[in-house]
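Reading group handout, session on sequence-to-structure problems. Before we discuss, look at one worked example. The prompt was deliberately terse, the way you'd type it at a terminal:

> structure Leucine-rich repeat-containing N-terminal plant-type domain-containing protein

The input record follows.
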Amino acid sequence: MQAEQAMAQVLVQGDLRPCTRLLLPLLLAATAVSAVASPAERDLYALSKLKSSLLSRSARNSTSLADWDMIKSSSHYYYHCNFSGITCDATNGHRVVAINLTGVPLPGGVLPAEISLLDALSSLTVAGCSSLSGPMPASLSSMPLLRRLNLSVNNLAGPFPSPPPDAAAAAYFPSLEVLDVYNNNFLGPLPPLGGSRLLHHLHLGGNYFTGSIPEAYGDMEGLVYLGLQANSLSGHVPPSLSRLRRLREIYLGYYNSFDGGISPEFCELDALVLLDMSSCGLTGIGGGGRTP
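And the output record:
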C-alpha cells in the first residue's frame, strides 16, 4: 500500500504520460492506484525507485545507470526497455522480465521494497557490488514469476526474509529455480525453502547462517546444486538430503561444525559427482570415520 501511495504521488506530479495526468483525478476517485497505472507505468515507477535506492545520496551524480532517464521515459512509452541491463517482453505489453546489473559500478545503496511492483520479473541479477548493503527486501519472496535470483558477492546483511506466519509454503518464492546469495553477510537460520520444489540451484555459502540444515531441504526434489559451505552451521547433516536423486554437487565444508558423519544413503545418489565436506567436523559415512 505504501508503494501504491508513493506511485500515486509520482503520477500526480506528472512524471508519467500526459494522458495519464489528465485522467488521473477522475480515475483516482473511482479505483485504487494500482488499477490507475498501467503495468508498464508501474514498471517504470519501480525502476525509478531501484535507481534512486542503488545510488547512495553522495553519488547521485554518478555516471552509473546514467541511461536510466526517467524524464524521457515519462514521455516516451516503453523507453525504459532501452535501459542498460533491462529486458522487456514485447509480446506482453513490454513488461520488464529481467534485470542484470552484474559489473555495473554501483556506488552504494540498498534494494527497495518497491522492486516487487515488477510483477512480471522472472530474473534479477545484482551481483558483485560490494557497496550494495542493507537487508534483502522481504517482498522479493512473494514475486509470482521470479525464477532466477542472483545477489551474490554483495554486502547484504541481516536475516534472510522468512514467509509470513500465515503464508502457505508454496507462496514463498513460488516460481524460483535459481537462488544464489553466495558471499554476503546474511545471518540467522537458513531460509525455509523446503517447499520450493522447482529449485535446482541453491547457493547459500559464504555467509553467517547458523543452526542446522532443515530436514525439509530433502523435499527440494529438483535440486542439482547445493552450496552451504563457509557458514556457521552445526548439528547433524539430515539424512533427508539423500532423497535428492538429481543432486550433482553438494558443498558442506569450511567454517561449519557438523556432528558425526553423513548418512550411508548418500552412496545411493547416482548423479552425485562432487561432495565437499572439508574442514567441517564430519567424520565420514555414518559417523564411523570412513571417507566416501
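Points for discussion. First: Residues 1-6, 8-33, 287-292 have pLDDT under 50 and may be disordered. Second: Residues 39-54 form the longest helix (16 residues).
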